[in-house]
Amino acid sequence: MHLTWLISAALLGLATCVPIERPKEKQEEETPPEPSDTGLFYHRYLQEVINVLETDGHFREKLQAANAEDIKSGKLSKELDFVSHHVRTKLDELKRQEVSRLRMLLKAKMDANMEQDVQIDHRNLLKQFEHLDPQNQHTFEARDLELLIQTATKHLENFDADHHNEFKRYEMMKEHERREYLKSLDEEKRREEEARFEELKKKHKEHPKVNAPGSQDQLKEVWQETDGLDPNEFDPKTFFNLHDTNSDGVLDEQELEALFTKELEKVYDPRNEEDDMLEMEEERLRMREHVMKNVDLNKDRLVNLDEFLKSTQRKDFNEADGWKTVEETQVYSEAELQRFEAELVAQETELGRRAEQLRRQHEELQQRQVQLDAQKKEYQQAVLQMEQRKSQPQPEQGHPAGPGGELKFQAQPPHAAPGDHQFLPDSHPGAPDHAPQQNQVEPSRSQQHPEVEIQ
Q: May I ask which residue range the UniProt record assigns to the signal sequence (predicted)?
């Protein structure tokens, strides 16, 4: 487990430290906890690479002999060429899994942006991820380890600063919402709310003295209340060994922050309305930074035994002034708050514009849907009429019939043969077919009755 933290610390830009001697009984009885989450979006990949490298004896030996500068510069990465084939195969598989995960993230992002049916150039898109080599997506090479170390180092160096900026925006948003709420009240209720707010602030400040983190008073308080030991018998080396919970010879950031719990409980209680737990986490981070600044001499983000013992010999170790909490410091200025509020107004304006655009698009889609429904109804009626016509009995073969069932005949053209029958358009179906035509000359009487003799 010591190597697990050592590799993790190395990959995060931390130096190795010489382990102190431990009683064998303690090493056998304790099971060190798993390394804490770094907060990086590729933390799982980072931890899995560490676990695989830990299994190679050659790499383990080189890591223990390396310093922080060797690790950061990429010198250690070249040792990857000498690890066993079995380890390299596992690392190749880890990289392929990570590339597949990143591709899924890119696809999900494009789907969320409604960029569907778009040809994706994964090689170019993967360039935005700095913790692996996108040109080679199948094997884990020395370049991948070098990029992983450099990227994790850079990201974690900015982690605290990013956290402080997020907390500042959180505090400004709280104040902005409070002021907006006061504007919505009438004069009397506004005075009552302001008085209530001041009362909560006053109540929050009523707490015991907070000792400066890393001071003699703070460590002795932990020694007495947490460890259950006599404060008059305080011993820095024993204290260090007690709170090096994973027995790796150093106090990491999580082990240091655990020492501040008693001080934080003096100020923050989750059951109290006036106590903000996010402020407590900011307080914890500020305390850890204070200790690292004064105790971490080689700036490797770890405190070894030698550094810890030297810190107890400093003049300010007996610092009795106490610690200024978050509410006693100015997190933001009024000018910063005004810029923040102007930014919120701009964001709200943009959101309003986009909402109006979406509303219009929704109306257009609704109108289009109405048109489509009308067309669909027309098509359905046309199909129904065709089905009805097909189901009706067909008329006998002959002359076409009109809507009322009457026969329709076309007039005989002028050049029709004399013997051809001609029917008037308005002739009744029952009329005899030998009726004389209007334009036909009436035959003579002798022609009509040839048997009558004229004398």
A: 1-17
